[in-house]
Amino acid sequence: MKPPGTKGVGFTSAPVRLASTARGLTYPKDFAKAPEVTSAPGDWTVVAYLAENEDRSSWKVFGCTGFHASRRQG
Questions:
Q1: How far is CA 23 from each of CA 19, 46, 58, 73, 74, rounded to the nearest angstrom?
Q2: Most CB atoms closer than 10 Å: which of 11, 25, 38, 63?
Q3: C-alpha to C-alpha distances, 10 to 21, 42, 48, nearest whole angstrom
Protein backbone atom coordinates (compact mmCIF):
# COMPACT_ATOMS: atom_id res chain seq x y z
CA MET A 1 0.00 0.00 0.00
CA LYS A 2 1.32 3.40 -0.94
CA PRO A 3 -0.24 6.63 0.31
CA PRO A 4 -0.24 9.62 -2.04
CA GLY A 5 3.29 10.92 -2.66
CA THR A 6 5.03 7.82 -1.27
CA LYS A 7 8.18 6.70 -3.06
CA GLY A 8 9.46 3.12 -3.13
CA VAL A 9 7.57 0.04 -1.98
CA GLY A 10 5.38 1.71 0.65
CA PHE A 11 3.82 -0.34 3.49
CA THR A 12 3.98 -4.12 3.14
CA SER A 13 2.13 -7.02 4.73
CA ALA A 14 3.73 -10.25 5.84
CA PRO A 15 4.22 -12.63 2.90
CA VAL A 16 1.04 -14.36 1.79
CA ARG A 17 1.03 -17.58 -0.22
CA LEU A 18 -1.46 -17.32 -3.05
CA ALA A 19 -3.59 -20.37 -3.66
CA SER A 20 -6.92 -21.34 -5.17
CA THR A 21 -8.72 -20.29 -1.97
CA ALA A 22 -9.45 -16.64 -1.21
CA ARG A 23 -7.11 -14.87 1.19
CA GLY A 24 -7.73 -11.40 2.54
CA LEU A 25 -5.62 -8.76 4.22
CA THR A 26 -6.94 -5.93 6.38
CA TYR A 27 -5.41 -2.47 6.14
CA PRO A 28 -3.82 -1.10 8.30
CA LYS A 29 -3.86 -4.09 10.72
CA ASP A 30 -1.85 -6.40 8.43
CA PHE A 31 0.64 -3.70 7.31
CA ALA A 32 3.47 -2.75 9.70
CA LYS A 33 3.46 0.90 10.84
CA ALA A 34 0.88 1.86 8.20
CA PRO A 35 -1.24 4.99 8.71
CA GLU A 36 -5.03 5.05 8.52
CA VAL A 37 -6.32 5.67 4.99
CA THR A 38 -8.10 8.84 6.16
CA SER A 39 -4.75 10.31 7.34
CA ALA A 40 -3.61 10.84 3.73
CA PRO A 41 -6.41 11.83 1.36
CA GLY A 42 -5.76 11.39 -2.33
CA ASP A 43 -4.88 8.58 -4.71
CA TRP A 44 -3.50 5.46 -3.00
CA THR A 45 -1.74 2.65 -4.87
CA VAL A 46 -2.06 -1.07 -4.14
CA VAL A 47 0.74 -3.20 -5.62
CA ALA A 48 1.07 -7.00 -5.47
CA TYR A 49 4.64 -8.30 -5.68
CA LEU A 50 6.17 -11.73 -6.24
CA ALA A 51 8.70 -11.77 -3.40
CA GLU A 52 10.87 -14.87 -3.16
CA ASN A 53 13.30 -13.36 -0.62
CA GLU A 54 13.84 -10.25 1.55
CA ASP A 55 15.73 -8.34 -1.19
CA ARG A 56 13.11 -5.77 -2.30
CA SER A 57 15.14 -4.92 -5.41
CA SER A 58 14.43 -8.44 -6.73
CA TRP A 59 10.65 -8.30 -6.20
CA LYS A 60 8.51 -8.46 -9.36
CA VAL A 61 5.21 -6.56 -9.72
CA PHE A 62 2.36 -8.84 -10.83
CA GLY A 63 -0.65 -6.69 -10.03
CA CYS A 64 -1.48 -3.05 -9.40
CA THR A 65 -4.67 -1.12 -8.61
CA GLY A 66 -5.65 1.83 -6.48
CA PHE A 67 -8.37 3.95 -4.95
CA HIS A 68 -9.11 7.55 -3.95
CA ALA A 69 -9.38 8.33 -0.22
CA SER A 70 -11.14 11.36 1.27
CA ARG A 71 -10.87 12.78 4.77
CA ARG A 72 -13.64 11.64 7.07
CA GLN A 73 -15.93 14.51 8.01
CA GLY A 74 -17.62 15.08 11.31
A1: 8, 16, 24, 31, 33
A2: 11
A3: 26, 15, 11
